Amino acid sequence: xxxxxxxxxxxxxxxxxxxxxxxxxxxxxxxxxxxxxxxxxxxxxxxxxxxxxxxxxxxxxxxxxxxxxxxxxxxxxxxxxxxxxxxxxxxxxxxxxxxxxxxxxxxxxxxxxxxxxxxxxxxxxxx
Length: 127
Prior knowledge:
Largest sheet: 2 strands, antiparallel
Mean pLDDT: 95
Number of strands: 2
Shape: globular
Order of helices and strands: HHHHEEH
Helix content: 55-70%
Radius of gyration: 14 Å
Low-confidence stretches: none
Strand order of the largest sheet: 1-2
Structural class: mainly alpha
Distance between the termini: 10 Å
């Protein structure tokens, strides 16, 4: 298997644990050194979208998930050992579920929002 930056491996662990804030930090650190890497930016935006949604920022979640959808497009179907078709299916399901006419709910009412699907990420061998 190809060697990736340590932060990339850590991203998978934290994403699967639901620690999206740490995912943001890990990916941003990598992306800041390689700003042309829209793959990292797409994963960053997807993580931020979930984080925003969990805290009631519905509009921010919608915007970030849409950006992730756009940034990751050019890397399909697979990049850096990640099956982006599965990621794309998740993003598209989220975009359907995230309410279109709500911008924000208070944190105390977050549980009234529709639940987003769960995505587990894992590295696959490169062909």
